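Q: How do we represent a protein-ligand complex in a form that can be generated token by token?
A: Start from the inputs.
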Amino acid sequence: MLNPEVNLRRALDRSALLEPAAIRHAAEALEDTVRLHRRSLHRHPELGFEVYATAAYIESVLDRLGIPHRRVAGTGIVAAIEGAGPRCIGIRADMDALPVPEAPGRDGYRSEIPGRSHACGHDGHVAVLLGVAELLVTAGELPGTVSLYFQPAEEGPGGAAPMVAAGAIDDPAVEAVMALHVTNTLPAGVVGLRAGPSTGSDDSFRIVVHGSGGHAAHPDAAVDPIPIAAGIVAALQQVVTREIDPVQPVVLTFGTIAGGTRHNVIATSVELCGTFRTLHAHNRELLRRRIPEVVRALAAAHRAAADVVIEHGYSPGANDPWLTELITESARAVLGREQVVHRPDPSLGGEDFYEFGATGLPVSMFLLGIANPTIGIGAPTHSPNFDIDEAGLPAGVAVFVEAARRFLTA
Ligand SMILES: [Zn+2]
Ligand SMILES: [Zn+2]
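Then emit the structure tokens for the protein with zinc ion bound:
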């Protein structure tokens, strides 16, 4: 195998670096380095804000590259590569993993922590951003400043808002922020973009139906919460289909139902947990109001009581049209038009990246394909079988660098 650093140096022609072809070439030369980063991170998945080893790994790479960095919001990292011009753009990578046990396989890069894995591909996001950092410092003088954000807790409770609150986007003062998310829905190295609405709100709820226990043979002497819980599952789906404009996307999913101890005992309570996602603020408000109303009324109708707690999640995310167009053109320039596709529809997945734009800053996130059925990679994110064809990652490096170059010289 070629030494990645020698490979990169060979690929770089400093005078020509700021051309798309040279950027693509340099990004491809970083493939081995990016794969190494991804696999190192993949072996040590960490959760939430507790991404200590991940942050230490990132800091060691930044130190090696001579890039100054600081901590924000605990384990968040801001690193700035300063250049000559006045403009400044940010790029964000989330760094946390999931409590998802990894399926067998992955020779040489299995998760070493039982019950946890990088099933959302954030190890790939960090690897790409470290590749961007290496390409930018090796490129010589930049036409402006690029700020790198390594963000914890995307899977919850949310690390973007605390990083923004801690001044991540103020020092240096960035004018826009980009991000990517890997996806199994596109072939490795293909980029998908859409301007406008991109991700949904993701509030969650916890319902407890309180009955009174008793003997299974004598329901008349008890209040059975299980049929009430079943009625709640159906009634809330009916709110979605009957009270919301059907051309406006909304999804409500129950993730857990728990209650009872034995086949011949009437349960005393049942707990139901779930999530609802919307693109429109008025639908989000409607569900926040109607879920407790319907649940309490249904429980009361059957002589029971119910508690409902709604936890507010991330807000819907939208991609700034101008910035998205700039990234689209950058991707076409470095990858070729056939490698860049329009995403026709938003997702109702939640994503806290858009908190970087909460104060009005233009933000845009694109999807980077990592699927490759010929080597068995294509499972969805959050599944135990999720994996990344790392050959697709240099495309992300190239798109970020070209988009940053265009932004800084626009
Ligand atoms: Zn995820
Ligand atoms: Zn994710």
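Residues 281-301 form the longest helix (21 residues). The chain has a mean pLDDT of 95.
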